[in-house]
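Below: protein 1.
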Amino acid sequence: MAAHAQPGQLIREWRQRRSLSQLELASRSAVSGRHLSFIETGRARPSREMILHLAQRLDVPLRERNRLLLAAGFAPVYSEHSLDEAGMLPVREALDRFLAAHDPFPAVVVDRGWNLVAANRGVSLLTEGVDPSLLEPPANALRATLQPLGMAPHILNLAEWSRHLLERLRRQIELTADGELQELYDELAAYPGVDATAGAEPGPAQEILIPLRLRHGDGVLEFFGTVTTFGTPLDITLSELVVEAFYPADARTADALNRVG
């Protein structure tokens, strides 16, 4: 997004990013096309309520909604608290309970940049052999997975798994317009063995999920993952947290995890 842009210009950029015409956005927002055109060109100054209304229809992330408000001369409405603050104690406790309950199966909490916020003991099975420097705070989960000194040499289906991760990151970039995420994407796509092909065909028809297949000793561990976010967040930090949980896809993997636990 352009620095010091006017609110109408920013709204137009978000509309175009969502591949919507003015007419489509006006219809979705119950706003006249003429008024929306005036807002985008700067001929009409949008109210605080109108900015929030259009931002909601455009699925603009909370962080960027605050920037829209600031560009229009209004105070931000969405808070951004550190997880260390007292008011975030219920969130920390909820995350700690989830991570502990999921043990011995691996689970991590990451922020919007895929930096590790918290992890349980089960993750140690995934990170065996990872260079310690990649796990030092602020550890980046994607770098630790796809970097040659990370998990990558142990991932048997690296092309498939990296393609899945980069597709998720690509969608996140499309949603947020985050330049730092684009830099991360470019870095990851350049790693050896990583497949950044978009729109590749799915795997065999008998598979119902994309697995993570990990070499472990003389055998293979196989996992599938789930992604959880907080519902109806009003805090920016909370809206950007993601819980990634892994489950064993076969009995051998479950046994190995239970031995870790």
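Below: protein 2.
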Amino acid sequence: MPPWTSGWRRRPRAGRFRITGHADRLGPEPYNLKLSLRRAETVKQYLAGKGVDARVIQLEAKGESDPVKRCKGGATPATKACLAPNRRAEVESE
């Protein structure tokens, strides 16, 4: 059953979840690492609000280390738009 169905909210599946936060390459690496953790924490709060036991959610922060898209250039609007897919959180069930 997909996690967005109403039945899932009433009866969350047993198991654990890993939420991995990511950031783009713009900005200092330590900042991007913290930013990616905040992204993961936001998703955890959302899932907990939907009935998932927060104790079964593990967080991981990757910062800028695992991009899905590589773009050249500085912090221009075009580069920021190109790098948008790298600013994400991924949820996996274990």
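Helices lie at 6-10, 29-49, 77-83.
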